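Appendix C: a fully annotated inverse folding record. The material below is reproduced so that readers can follow the format used throughout the book. The structure is listed first as tokens, followed by the designed sequence.
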């Protein structure tokens, strides 16, 4: 009898010790973000990294409905808007448009997502230098839930695609405190951006190759240009716009009002 009770107690302790709390990032609960993230940031222990200065539309959060096989109904999507590596890069090492989180060890990871267009598209889960798992999917109409069980020591878990993917929810167990790496952080540009009437002015540029992108309040790209000198341009429709400046010197995003 005592032996049975001892075994039962051991079983209960083992179950408690093996239990790992689950963290869920449900993008339907995130605030709408029409311009995305111009610089790397951590939100609720999820790192969002656009990468080089030329990336201007990563991490847009917008209204979009989707229903998945587990009856989860989404109302917003998080857009990668491109692949996690360039055409000259390698799929094992994401350099742009990726997200990651810290796991303290073994972790059960699930991703609710859709392809951002037609044709085969691949979701990657990796360590930043090696691929742990991947899923190639060709259906752009129906969402998919991809689950991977990581077994190993504490590490950062990276999620990215070979091209545009739309994420709706991510869950993982045993999540730790995520800290941005040195290579993730980009400097803030010292450019001055302001509007007067229907004109936008961009000055104090530090780089000979600066990309200026203007987005409407709903996230649509309305103007894009490259410049090496201070510049100004007109926007004919009244409203609120977001002006993104990107160069090797840094990145900056400013809201302006066109009257």
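Designed amino acids, in order:
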């Amino acid at each position: 009898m005592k032996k049975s009770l001892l075994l039962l107690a051991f079983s209960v302790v083992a179950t408690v010790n093996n239990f790992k709390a689950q963290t869920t990032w449900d993008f339907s609960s995130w605030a709408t973000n029409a311009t995305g993230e111009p610089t790397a940031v951590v939100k609720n222990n999820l790192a969002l990294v656009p990468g080089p200065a030329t990336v201007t539309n990563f991490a847009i959060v917008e209204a979009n409905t989707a229903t998945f096989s587990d009856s989860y109904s989404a109302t917003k999507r998080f857009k990668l808007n491109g692949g996690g590596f360039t055409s000259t890069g390698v799929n094992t090492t994401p350099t742009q448009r990726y997200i990651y989180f810290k796991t303290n060890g073994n972790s059960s990871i699930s991703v609710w997502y859709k392809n951002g267009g037609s044709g085969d598209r691949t979701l990657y889960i990796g360590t930043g230098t090696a691929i742990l798992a991947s899923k190639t999917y060709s259906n752009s109409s129906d969402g998919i839930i991809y689950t991977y069980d990581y077994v190993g020591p504490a590490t950062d878990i990276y999620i990215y695609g070979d091209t545009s993917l739309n994420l709706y929810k991510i869950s993982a167990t045993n999540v730790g405190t995520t800290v941005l790496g040195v290579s993730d952080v980009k400097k803030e540009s010292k450019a001055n951006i302001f509007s007067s009437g229907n004109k936008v002015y961009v000055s104090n540029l530090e780089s000979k190759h600066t990309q200026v992108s203007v987005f409407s309040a709903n996230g649509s790209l309305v103007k894009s240009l490259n410049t090496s000198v201070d510049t100004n341009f007109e926007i004919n429709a009244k409203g609120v716009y977001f002006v993104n400046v990107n160069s090797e010197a840094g990145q900056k995003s400013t809201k302006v009002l066109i009257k």
